[in-house]
Amino acid sequence: MRRLLKAKPRARGLVVPAMPVGSPGMEVGGRKDPYEVLLVNPDGSTRTYAQY
Length: 52
Hints:
By secondary structure, this protein is an alpha+beta fold. It is 12% helix and 27% strand. It has a three-stranded antiparallel sheet with strand order 1-2-3, with no helix packed on it. The longest helix is centred in the N-terminal third of the chain and has 6 residues, at 2-7.
């Protein structure tokens, strides 16, 4: 979020599809699956914003 607020890209927001284990709110013990955070562009298309 800090990176997004600092960069101020033209975007509708961020999404993390599929609720991966280890993402915020989806913690299960110490398990963390890899996942991508997508930036939603004004036209509704998406692109990878970050990978964890």
